[in-house]
Amino acid sequence: MNNPLITEICGVKFNNPLIMASGTFGYGLEYSEIIDLNKIGGISVKGISLNEVQGNPMPRIMETHAGMLNAIGLQNVGVEKFIKEKLPGIKKYSTRIIANFWGKTVDEYVKVAEVLDKEDVDMLEMNISCPNIKEGGIAFGTDPKMTFDVVSEVKKAVNNKPLVVKLSPNVSDISIFGRAVEDAGADAVSAINTLLGMSINTNTRKPFLSNVTGGLSGPAIKPVAVKMVYDLYKTISIPIIGIGGIMNYKDVIEFYLAGASAVQIGTANFVDPEITLEIIKDLENYCIENKIANISQLSGGIVV
Question: How far is CA 233 from the centre of its chain?
Fold first, then answer.
C-alpha cells in the first residue's frame, strides 16, 4: 500500500500533512537532536520580520488548565540572519520549509515577502493575526478591507512561491476574512492563530504576563478552531491548513472532516517534542484499517 499520508497543497508535496506551527518549533534546528526532521511533513519557521526583534520582556509564557498563554512578541533574528544562519541548516533535511513572515506596515510585509520569495523555501505563510505586539498584524487581520489590501500588495510581490495567509480567530465571522484573502489572490489559508486571553495572579493582583494579555493555544481552543475551519470550508475554495489544539491523530481527523487539507501542530510540541511521530504512525494505521487510500479523502467529509 502506498503512503496514505502523502499530501499536496498548492503544488507542493509533503510526506505527510503534519506541519510544525510557527512559534512552537523555532527554526527547526533546535529540535534536530530530539527528532528526525526528515519524518515531519513541514516546518513553519518562527515568524520572520524585516529587522531583528527582541520580543516582549519576561514573563511571556504560562501554562493554563488546557493549554498555554504566550506573549513572546514575535522575537526573531530578522530576514537577513534567517537566510544566512538558519536556512542552510534546515535545507539539509527533506521536510518542507514554510517561511512564516510578518510586518508592521504594508511596505514591510511586501519587502520581507520579496526577499523570501527568492530563497529556497517551499511556501510563504503571511501572519496577519498575531495579538502579542501592537504592530503584529492584528489590525490587518481584523479589518476585511485592510486584510484584502495587504494580501493584494504582497501577492503582487510573490511570483515563485504559494502564499498562505494565517487568519485571526479574534473576529466575529472568520469566513468574511477567508473570502477577502481568497479574493486578494492568496493560494491557501491557515487557521487559526491564538485567541486573546489573560490571567491574573490573585496574590499580587498583577497579570501573569508582562504584556498583560496573550494568545491562548492548546486543547482549550480546539472546538473553536474546528468550527472556524468548517466555516471557512463552506465559504472558500482554496486549501485550508487547520491549527488549534491538536494533540493526537483523532484531532487531526476531526480537522480534516471539518475541511482541512493539512494541519499544524503547535502547543503539543511543548508537551512532547516527539508527539508528531506518534501521530504520523497512528494516522497511517487509521488509514490502513479503514481502507483510506489517501487522507485527503477525509477533507470536508463531515456528515451533518
Answer: 17
Per-residue model confidence (pLDDT) at position 139 = 72
Report the pLDDT value the prediction gives residue 140, as an integer from 0 to 100. 83
Alpha-carbon dihedral angle through residues 103, 82, 260, 169, given to the nearest 10 degrees: -30
pLDDT at 274 over 90: yes
Q: Confidence band (pLDDT; 50, 70, 90) for 133?
A: low
Q: Where does residue 198 rank: exposed (0-12), middle (13-18), buried (19+ CB within 10 A)?
A: middle
Percent of the chain at pLDDT above 90? 94
Tens-digit pLDDT profile for residues 209-220:
999 999 999 999
DSSP-assigned letter for residue 196: E
Task: Report how far apart, in Å, the C-alpha atoms of 124 and of each of 52, 54, 96, 204, 251 are.
Answer: 19, 22, 11, 42, 25
Phi, psi of 12 (to 5 degrees): -100, 125
131 pLDDT exceeds 90?
A: no
Please state, in angstroms and rounded to a whole number, the distance separating the CA atoms of residues 151 and 133: 20
- Strand segments (E) across 157-233: 163-166, 188-191, 195-198, 213-217
> CB within 8 A of 279, min separation 6: which ones?
18, 246, 248, 249, 252, 265
Query: Which residues are catalytically annotated?
Result: 130
**146 near 137, Cβ under 8 Å?**
no
pLDDT mean over 184-196: 97
Cα–Cα distance, 111 to 184 (Å, whole number): 18
Q: For the whole model, what pTM was predicted?
A: 0.96
Give the end-to-end CA distance of the chain in Å, rounded to a whole number: 31
CA–CA dist 297, 274 (Å, integer): 26
Closest CA to 268 of 223, 224, 220, 304: 220
CA 176 from centroid of its chain's CA atoms: 19
